[in-house]
Design a protein that fits this description.
The protein is an alpha/beta fold and 258 residues long. The protein is built from 9 helices and 11 strands. Helix 6 links the parallel strand 8 and strand 9. It binds adenosine-5'-triphosphate (ATP) and magnesium ion (MG).
């Protein structure tokens, strides 16, 4: 486990984050920092705001109040987003992997990974393909470079999605339930790739119900309920001695389900 160097500029700095859909307040004044190289695991009941929280961290959702800074640069200030062009540039620094893979179905695996760098990082086709091939090797899929997404298993698709996000050379990776859509026997191969990224020092925020992963790989576990962070701390503390009764009952429900 890595200890946070609190003197460093946080990789992600969130202050007073407030988000509502119409009358429905979904995030209530969230303050949180993610330090460089930290792995933050976000847990909490369905509807507690985990996905919305993550989506605010890469500008996919516009909050009504508060600020989000990525590596010291404001993505959102007083609830207002950066202008589109700057937003796109900053977004490239924040990779995101979703539950549903979201690969381009009509493009080969290699092309899925190389498209972003060609379009957005200005690489030539050869450069982008070379980098993509190396990333596919890293996630154990070099042999699938020329396959189409439909021919892959869910675990393979998700590893391609991770390679695609990494191809943009992000400073932070956000994962929203990356293994929830997978058959149980395919979960391990995706968690393994995420574990490797963590060990290489990637800063990560991960929403997951995989409590073993949270314990083993997480530096900090954040517990959300009702749109707020009800507690955050080292995995051991959260799992063995949580301060909130709501954390205790949530963990009991999750751990007895599996
Ligand atoms: N686009 C939207 N429009 C309206 N309400 C929304 C929208 N997205 C999310 N919500 C609401 O915001 C609340 C938080 O949703 P969110 O998806 O962030 O929760 P979650 O913790 O990720 O839940 P889950 O574990 O089921 O994925 C929920 O009440 C949800 O219905
Ligand atoms: Mg969610």
């Amino acid at each position: 486990m890595k200890t946070a160097d609190n003197s460093a500029t946080p990789m992600v700095r969130i202050r007073g984050l407030h988000k509502a859909f119409g009358e429905h307040v979904v995030l209530k004044s969230i303050d949180f920092d993610v330090q460089p190289q930290q792995v933050v695991v976000v847990i909490g009941p369905s509807g507690s705001g985990k996905s919305t929280f993550l989506r605010c961290c890469n500008g996919l959702e516009q909050p009504q109040g508060g600020s989000v800074e990525i590596c010291g640069r404001m993505l959102v200030k007083d609830g207002r987003m950066l202008p589109d062009q700057e937003l796109d540039a900053l977004r490239e620094e924040v990779g995101m992997v979703f539950q549903g893979f979201n690969l381009f179905p009509h493009l080969s695996v290699l092309h899925n990974v190389s498209l972003g760098p060609r379009k957005l990082r200005g690489l030539s086709r050869v450069e982008a393909d070379t980098e993509a091939q190396a990333l596919l090797a890293k996630v154990g899929l070099a042999h699938k470079a020329h396959a189409m997404p439909a021919s892959l298993s869910g675990g393979q698709k998700q590893r391609v999605a991770i390679a695609r996000a990494l191809a943009m050379k992000p400073k932070v990776m956000l994962f929203d339930e990356p293994t929830s859509a997978l058959d149980p026997e395919l979960v391990g191969e995706v968690l393994q790739v995420m574990k490797m990224l963590a060990s290489e020092g990637m800063t990560m925020m991960v929403v997951t119900h995989e409590m073993d992963f949270a314990r083993e790989v997480g530096d900090v576990v954040v517990v959300m309920d009702g749109g707020g962070i009800i507690e955050a701390g080292a995995p051991e503390t959260i799992f063995t001695n949580p301060s909130q009764e709501r954390t205790r009952s949530f963990l009991q429900a999750v751990l007895t389900r599996t």
